[in-house]
Design goal:
With about 100 residues, this protein is mainly α. It has one domain. Helix content is about 70%, strand content about 0%. The protein is built from five helices and no strands. The structure holds zinc ion (ZN). Zinc ion binds next to helix 2 and helix 4.
């Protein structure tokens, strides 16, 4: 296990376990760029720890999605018109 890690750390295109942890959310959500995704996949194939981590994360997020439902969705992109107008009005007042 240690020798695999040592070999991986010598490859410039190889992510570290820490980087995998940092980008795990984006990977699961399908937000990674193709190259980042490729690097992520490569690391997962070679690292048993991160395979377990990814599997645990997917399981947890599947459970969380069921419990939280639509409330867990990202911030709304369609703000109510009157709220937008209020924000614009407030900004115009600031610049005066
Ligand atoms: Zn790893």
């Amino acid at each position: 296990m240690k020798s695999i890690k040592a070999a991986m750390s010598r490859m410039p295109m190889m992510m570290t376990c820490g980087e995998v942890e940092e980008t795990l959310f984006d990977y699961v959500e399908g937000r990674l760029a193709p190259y980042a995704r490729w690097k992520f996949d490569l690391h997962i194939k070679m690292c048993r720890e991160c395979q377990d981590y990814l599997a645990a994360y997917k399981k947890a997020s599947a459970l969380g999605g069921e419990i939280l439902g639509p409330a867990a969705a990202p911030a709304p992109t369609d703000l109510p018109d009157d709220l937008v107008e209020a924000i614009i009005a407030a900004r115009e007042m600031d610049t005066r």
